[in-house]
Amino acid sequence: MSTWQLLKKNRLAILGLVFLLFFFLFAIFGLIVTSGKNPIFNPYTIRLQEKLKPPFSKANKEVLSPDQIPPFGIYIFGTDDLGRDVFSRMLQGAWVSLTVGFVSVGISTAIGIIIGGIAGYYGKEHPFVDILITGMIDIMLCFPSFFLVLTVMAFVPGSIYTIMAVIGLTNWMGTARFVRAEFLSLREQDFILAAKALGLSEFRIIFRHMLPNAMAPVLVSATLGIASAILIEAGLSFLGFGVPPPYATWGGILSDGRRYLFDAPWLTFIPGIAILFVVLSFNLFGEGLRDALNPRLRE
Amino acid sequence: MKEFLIRSLIQKSITLFFISVISFLVIHLAPGEPSQINPLNPKFTPELIKRFRQQFHLDKPIYVQYLIFYRDLFSGRLRSWKDGRPVLEKIWERFLNSLPLFISGTFLTWTISFPLGIQSAIRRGSLFDRTSTFFAYLFISIPGFFFAYVLIIFVVNRFHVPVIGMETFGISGPWYFKLMDRIWHLLLPSVLSAGSGIAILSRYVRSQMLEVESQDYIRTARAKGLPEDVVHYKHALRNALLPFVTMFGLVIPGLIGGSVIIESIFSWPGIGRLAYEAMLSRDYPVVITLNFISAVLVLIGTFISDLLYMIVDPRIRL
Q1: How close B266 gets to chain A, by Cα (Å)?
Q2: Residue A54 maps to a domain
Q3: Burial class of B113 by CB neighbour count within 10 A (0 to 12, 13 to 18, 19+)
Q4: Are A152 and B156 a contacting pair at CB < 8 A?
Q5: Is the bond leading into A246 cis (omega within 30 degrees of zero)?
Q6: Could you tell me the CA-to-CA distances from B106 to A143, A200, B70, B192 in Å, in that order?
Q7: Bridge partner residues of A264 (DSSP)
Q8: Is residue A158 a contact partner of residue A100, using CB atoms and an 8 Å limit?
Q9: Does A123 score more than 60 pLDDT?
Q10: What stretches of B171-236 show up as alpha helix (H) in DSSP?
Q11: Phi and psi dihedrals of B42, rounded to 5?
Q12: Residue B84: left if φ>0, alpha if ψ -120 to 50, beta else—which one?
């Protein structure tokens, strides 16, 4: 059976995938409607006369100027302590979560493939390179991930790009280990010997013949990595080391809302549940993918 | 065996050296030299720059800076910028506060995950297995801070009792009253810190147990006509437990790493909160020392797990 057929049997993984597609659409839609000069959903509009309104409450059009009225005259997710529309802020924050998740995992996967690939492919002829790289991996693994990210973020200026870079640069070790192990066993196999005998360039052997065969564990760890990157970003925003305000992030909305925990619980629950669902879907899909790609489970 | 130990020790000391270098380099993370930083940046006052230069001897070559820093750290001369107290003393004080939280959290994690994982594996595919799998995914995915607030809302609305801090402010009464109050305050943060740990560890126990249950010697044990309980708990479990003995060592790093968010939410004056406060006030000596200590703890943890592995697994001793 193909991977896709195996994956389709796993109902939870498919549920995760469907929710992820919905999340992508939400984030892209959010980027379109909240950016520009006069966005349809303006996450920055402050309405002090309409603060802390519960979800689905109607906007009071008598106290608002025309450009302050939210689309459809309704606050779908309520308003926060400055009267900003939480739905618009959630739309804007979705894009941050999505890009931070994908870009940082892209960075860490690329680094992991390159470093692990070098160690796995050249390690045998140049043991020094292999020792150097595995040593580097061991050293990096000694620093607790979230703590390290937090330390770095405390000292460099916070922006969405530094967050992506820092998360990416501190989480490549797992991928590097996988790729190194895969390359070590792949390079002994006959088809690589055949490729070498044909006189193919090393570049072509590595990227055309070896890498595709080592991709399965990388893909799984990347999917699970996105989940943890989104959690790290939310944790950073929550602690105030994330994307600087007024730009909205899900962790930031939750962090701002904690002073109104009992008066305005939706400021906690809406972003919290959103983060939970997105991370859960990535985890379910990633685990499903792992099972589907596991050759031992195939008939 | 001796050879293995010596090799491991040498390797660990080399790693330790690099850890100390990397932790130290954190101060050079901020772009450029602090004295060259944009004077408009409110985070770098002239006073801070002066102190920065003095503390880290930035005018000297970098290896001298490194040596001076660790000389000061180990001789106890390194002081916090915030209140001028020795860094090690400050960390030790907070460490004693974190310790009960860490112990109760670890205790909960290890006592709950094993029965849970073993039962899931034995009753694979049952309602119990599917429910615990679902909750495991839920607890792995839930952001700690959100879970904390959900629990706080629930407990405060339901029982009307304070949950923040290490004890109720201004509490008085006999000693057992204070003790109960302490334990109550400990409960919520330790449940939180155990939550994701239980989820991850019980999944791991389950897969390990399933792996062992599919081995040939289990089939042999069944074929001999042994009762199911003996097969599960005597033959399977003992072998499935092997990798977990080594994980005891990996528990140690949790002392610092995982507690930043939970301790800041509950205003728990422990190490994680100290780290957060130090980062907010740019207290470089404390941040660097904490990073160094947490990495060293990981290193010690891996060394202990190497040792334990050697003790339980005779194959390595050869």
Answers
A1: 12
A2: no
A3: buried
A4: no
A5: yes
A6: 20, 54, 32, 11
A7: none
A8: no
A9: yes
A10: 175-213, 216-223, 228-230
A11: -65, -15
A12: left
**E strand or H helix that includes residue A158:** none
Check if the beta carbon of residue A225 is closer than 8 Å to that of residue A171.
yes
A109 alpha-carbon distance from chain centroid: 12
Q: Which of A155, A231, A268 sits opposite B26 (nearest CB)?
A: A155
- Find the CATH number of the domain harbouring A195: 1.10.3720.10
A238 domain residue, yes or no: yes
Q: Which site among B15, B146, B164, B266 would you substitute to test the A interface, given the most A Cβ atoms closer than 10 Å to its Cβ?
A: B146
Mean pLDDT of A58-71: 75
Window from A57-71, A206-220, A270-284, B194-208 with minimum mean pLDDT = A57-71
pTM: 0.88
A122-150 CB burial, b ≥16 within 10 A, e <16: bbeeeeeebeebbeebbbbbbbbbbbbbb
Q: Is the pLDDT of residue A251 over 50?
A: yes
Residues in B closer than 8 angstroms to A225, CB to CB, are: none
Per residue in B129-173, pLDDT tens? 989 988 999 998 999 889 999 998 888 888 877 777 777 777 777
> pLDDT (tens digit, 9 = 90+) per residue, B50-87?
766 666 666 677 788 888 888 888 888 887 777 778 88
Note whether residue A51 is domain-resident: no
- In angstroms, the CA B147 to CA B135 distance is 13
* Tokens at A161, concatenated: 């790009």
Window 219-248 of A, Cβ < 8 Å to B = 227, 231, 234-235, 238-241
Task: Return the amino acid letter for A268.
Answer: T
Domain tally, chain A:
1
- State how far residue B141 is from chain A, nearest Cα, in angstroms: 5
| Domain housing A154 | 3-42+86-297
Task: Please judge whether B275 and A279 are an interchain contact, meaning their C-beta atoms are less than 8 angstroms apart.
Answer: no
From B91's Cα to the closest Cα of chain A, the distance in A is 16
**Residue A151 to residue B26, Cβ atoms within 8 A:** yes
Question: Is A64 part of a structural domain of the chain?
Answer: no
Of B138, B279, B290, the CB nearest to A280: B138
pLDDT tens digit string along A179-210?
999 898 888 889 988 988 998 888 888 888 88
With beta carbons under 8 A apart, name residues in chain A contacting B257: 144-147
Q: How many C-beta neighbours within 10 Å does residue A174 have?
A: 20
Query: Mind telling me how many Å the CA of A196 is from chain B's nearest CA?
Result: 36
Residue B235 has pLDDT above 60, yes or no: yes
B10's tokens = 């040498």
Look at residue A37 and give its three-state secondary structure. Answer: coil
